[in-house]
Amino acid sequence: MTDEQQPITIKISEFEGPLDLLLHLIRQNKMDIYDIPIAAITQQYLDYLHSMRALKLDIAGDYLVMAATLMTIKSRFLLPQPEPEDDDDLEDDTDPRDSLVAELLAYKVYQEAAGELRTKEQERHQHFTREAMLVPADLSAPKLTAGITLDDLQAAFRQLVAKRRRVRPLTKTVVAETVNIDERMVQITTQLQDRPHGMDFADLFTVNASDEMLVTTFMAVLELTKQDQVSLQQAAPLTPIHLYLRQDEQHDEH
Fold first, then answer.
1. DSSP 243
2. Within 10 Å of residue 27's Cβ, how many Cβ atoms?
3. Under DSSP, is residue 12 helix (H, G, I), strand (E, B) or coil?
4. pTM to 2 decimals?
5. What are phi and psi of 191, to 5 degrees?
6. Contact status, residue 240 vs residue 201, Cβ threshold 8 Å
């Protein structure tokens, strides 16, 4: 090796920091985190650092700072403590381990939260999301009358729902809906057969119609336009939408 070459130092990181190492030692020895035997934990912590040095591994400065903190706390326990003169001095005599225990408890909370997130990440890796795809060119879409878009129909539906909710009574009786989309389609075409001049979109809904009936009716209108059974017309933007039964459908019925 030439003088210009630097020795390669390999750092093995078993722990994410000094608090992580302390928690490991506490769990391994089944110690009470609220009553840490400071002499034993300090000795084990220093033994670990000495083993890292023996293996010629780099030791981060945070580990050395924690070692100094542990030795300081240990020295405070070894020094003789004066007898408290009164109750006030007894209350002020705080445990030198308190700040260390608080740090360990806070770190433990974040460590457990990180473990839960790691588990969720592993579970998410078992799922595969399909990439966005273009709409197929041969997809059958609702055929609306020229000049009327699906947004227009949705806007009319939103206005209708808002109007119904404003006039809806504060109390009502909840009953199960018995009409599905197919049945509602038949009902709508039957209504249009009796009205050669068509009817307004809003007239399909009764004042007391439930939310389920509103949605069912809206989906039925979309399906009827998709099947070319109903045509929609609008005299001008934002004006009521009018429904007509297509001429070929009227002829088929007659």
1. E
2. 11
3. coil
4. 0.40
5. -65, -40
6. yes
> Distance between CA atoms of 167 and 161, rounded to whole angstroms?
10
pLDDT digits (tens, 9 = 90+) for 9-57: 334 456 777 888 888 888 888 888 888 888 888 888 888 888 877 766 6
Kindly give, in sequence order, each residue whose CB lies less than 8 Å from that of residue 244, ignoring residues fewer than 6 positions away. Answer: 192, 197, 198, 230, 231, 232, 233
Query: How many CB atoms within 10 Å of residue 230?
Result: 25
**Beta bridge partners of residue 242, listed in sequence order:** 200, 233
Q: Quick one: fold of 150-253?
A: Arc Repressor Mutant, subunit A (1.10.10)
> pLDDT tens digits, residue range 74-89?
888 777 666 666 555 5
For the chain, which residues make up each domain, given as ranges?
18-78+96-124, 150-253
Q: How far apart are CA 129 and CA 42, in angstroms?
A: 50
